[in-house]
Amino acid sequence: MVSGLVRFALVVLGFFVLGQALHLPPWMGLTVGAVLGLALAGYFWYQSKDQIYTARQLAAKPFGLRVPDAVDLAFDAAPALAGNNTYSQRVVGSWNYGSNFSELRNLADLPDGEMLEVQAALVVEPANKHSRHAVTVSVAGFVVGYIPDIEAEALFRFLQNHRGIARVNCNVYLNVTSGESRVELDLTRPYQIVSGV
Prior knowledge:
- This protein has two domains: 2-59; 69-194, 2-Layer Sandwich (Alpha-Beta Plaits), CATH 3.30.70.
- It contains five helices and eight strands; from the N terminus they run αααββαβββαβββ.
- It has helices at residues 2-21, 26-60, 69-73, 98-108, 149-160, and strands spanning 80-81, 89-90, 115-124, 135-139, 142-146, 165-173, 182-185, 193-194.
- Helix 1 (2-21) packs antiparallel against helix 2 (26-60).
- The chain is elongated and about 75 Å long.
């Protein structure tokens, strides 16, 4: 709260000084500064509220077959992570989500055995019963596996600094009938955010 008040005061003071430099009436610089300061304070308040809400959704309970709707809705605004077109990041546990691969195949209207090129969400799952730093891989809100535990801790910490979610390019191999569906991610290390994507 204090930092918000300080930010507001600095914006008002900045416009007051600018108004004085441009020989404007003092009330004009103060009014413009106050309006912009309030708008800026409102923006930062909303951002922090949204981050707290998302964090609560992530920590509420284990995901099961789907990530929480609020998390899925945050997908489009999530940062995109860089890749190198090798799709070498393994995803484990996919065999547990056969019904989700079937749902994805139906949504994409693809025959069995096809590959789906999409963006997946990497989502921290602090309530996971098997790992304190689980990173879930989901496509269209459906869980399709996890980052291997030995690699997940560093990614978990990285994602925690970005609201717990990021986007990454992936190939989903829809082998529903045989139960051998799998996911490959295009993810490089060290993790880097791709701007403008």
